[in-house]
Amino acid sequence: MPRWLFPLVVILGLISVGGTFGWYTVNNMRYVTTTYASVTAPTRWVTAPEAGQITADDVTVGQSVSTGETLLTETLANGTTLTVTAPANGVVATLNAPQGQWVASGTPLLAVVNPSQYQVTANIPETQMANVWVGQTAVIRLSAYPGTSFSGQVVRIGTETLSVNPAVLSASTTFSKQVQWVPVTLTINAPNTALWPGENATVKIRR
């Protein structure tokens, strides 16, 4: 390598490192960021009214259903046939009762969610909660749609942390604090986008 080239490489390297550090610093100043987040939705579970066998399965995961619509048919041991209906308008998110399966009374058969009520729950470290409040806007990215950003807004802040033990006893018999996480609920603006409760998300809340 020519002697004159070495200082240039060093300078370019320093500029690159400085730029990365500067971007990271500015990003942290502008946003509260967490990768500990997921899509959630109010879920209505449908359970087996009595013990019996699922003899007709007229629904699939992802299917839109209406309140009162027949979803499953259950036949009891005495031959009586019962119908299982949708508890609300929405989409079938989970189906645990294939045709032919025997179920006990109260067994969860399927879950219905309302797509218009999808939200994101972001867990924020307690050290950042002074920078989070209801009404803030956010940028949300979902693992299922890499490279796509969705807008959102903080609508609720949890009243309890995720851990009930503020300290643990370490191997050295001294107490060390654990970082506590506060659940923060956000809306997500994702029209015409398929979402699934539980899918992972990254949330950046604007300060």
Automatic annotation (TrEMBL):
One CC-aspect GO term: membrane
InterPro entries per UniProt: Beta-barrel_YknX (IPR058636), Biotin_lipoyl (IPR000089), MFP (IPR050739), Single_hybrid_motif (IPR011053)
Primary localization: membrane
Keyword tags: Membrane, Transmembrane, Transmembrane helix
Membrane topology: Single-pass membrane protein
Top-rank taxon: Bacteria
Transmembrane helix found in the keyword field: yes
The keyword Transport is annotated on this UniProt entry: no
Subcellular location: Membrane
Domain YknX-like beta-barrel: 118-205
Residues in Lipoyl-binding domain copies: 46-110
UniProt similarity note: Belongs to the membrane fusion protein (MFP) (TC 8.A.1) family.
Full protein name: Biotin/lipoyl attachment domain-containing protein
